Amino acid sequence: MSERGRGDLQVHVVVPDRDVDVAFTAEPGEVIGVVGPSGAGKTTVLRAIAGLDRPHGGTVALGDEVWDDGGRRRVTTADRRVGLVLAEPLLLPHLDVRTNVAIALDAGVGGPDALADADGWIDALGLGEIGHHRADTLSTGQAQRVSLGRALASDPRVLLLDEPLANLDIRTRAEVRRLLSTVLHRIEGPTVIVTHDPVDAYALADRLVVVEDGMVSQAGDLRAVTRRPRTDWVAALVGLNLYRGRVEDGRFHLDDSDQSLAVATDVRGPALATILPRAVSLHRGRPSGSPRNVWHGGVVSVDGRAGRMRVSIAGRVPIVAEVTATAVADLELGRGGGIWVSVKATEIDVFAD
């Protein structure tokens, strides 16, 4: 540890009346993406780290400096020196951009040193041309960049972002996301970003902490989480079909069902299985040849996504397939009805549960 308060961010937030019990660690310079469905407890955790709310138990600490130990000790938000960026930019509307950024600096509002330092962040965030504009004249995207500049200018020991791109339109969101991906790794301390958007999480985070129903359901680097989802929400997040069951004699037996799938794996016992939607083949008639996994289902819905079509199919093994728009037309999937599904055993990824 190089200096007091510059080590790992250690988080364990317990709020019983909200059914929240979340723990994780963030290293200096690391960007942690806290993701999960709405109401899972993500913002509760972030506010506890910032010192805006007091958890009922657990510990929040930076290095050897304990910020909150669940009631006995508490460091104020100001003394924690965190940078906080919310979905709604909180700027002083009557002040210009330079002063809104400079207000975060120790030199004080309007001081020459503060304004000079503010200019550095303003330029880095692409706001140089509007430095003298009042905050109440800015677009939402510009205001959010100013909010970020103010947080960064304070030289925060920890940077906290709560849905920072949520209120931006698609084009502005992409621009600010690219900016964040460049800026965040210039921060010496840990960064925690709360988001429900998988694109934001993948673009900005080094590691994911998935929070569901107030608990950490999965954590790890992006590759580990996306390749090995352990809950339905994570599987949906990354666009995979996920099944829980047991492997016996070369077959994956689904839990709560008498159905099974042929698999090619060395795993035995309790397991999870994932199938990429693109690995699912659809046929109007029973496919010829000898595919090892074939069953009949019914088309529930057809939705477009990035030039591909996702087809939800009910049946003995509910599944989502991803096909081209041409295939949708050729198979007349838009009219619903029965459809044959086939999946190769080698296309089913199985891992121990």
Report the C-alpha radius of gyration, rounded: 25 Å
Shape: elongated
Name the strands of the widest sheet in spatial order: 6-7-8-3-9-10
> How many alpha or pi helices?
10
Question: Quick summary of this structure?
Answer:
The chain is of the alpha+beta class. The protein has helices spanning 42-50, 77-80, 97-102, 112-124, 140-153, 170-183, 198-204, 222-227, 232-238, 325-330; strands at 9-15, 20-26, 31-35, 57-62, 65-68, 82-85, 158-162, 191-195, 207-212, 215-221, 241-248, 251-254, 260-262, 269-275, 281-283, 294-305, 308-315, 319-323, 338-342, 348-352.
Description of the molecule:
The chain is α+β, with helices and mostly antiparallel strands. The chain is built from ten helices and 20 strands. The strands form four sheets. Strands 6-7-8-3-9-10 form a six-stranded mixed beta sheet, sandwiched between helices. A five-stranded antiparallel beta sheet has the order 13-12-11-14-20. The longest helix has 14 residues. The chain is elongated and about 75 Å long. The chain starts with 8 loop residues before the first strand and ends with a strand.
